[in-house]
Amino acid sequence: METKFKPLNEDLTFEKLSFVDQTFKSLIFDNCEFEEVDFSSTSLISCKFTNCRFIRCNFSSTNINASQLNDIVFEECKILGVHFHACSDFLFSASFKNCTLDFSSFYQKKMQKTAFTNCSLKEVDFSESDLSQSVFDNCSLLDSVFYRTILKEVDFRTAKHFSINPEVNELKKAKFTRDGLEGLLSKYNLIIE
Question: Within 10 Å of residue 61's Cβ, how many Cβ atoms?
Answer without folding.
Answer: 16
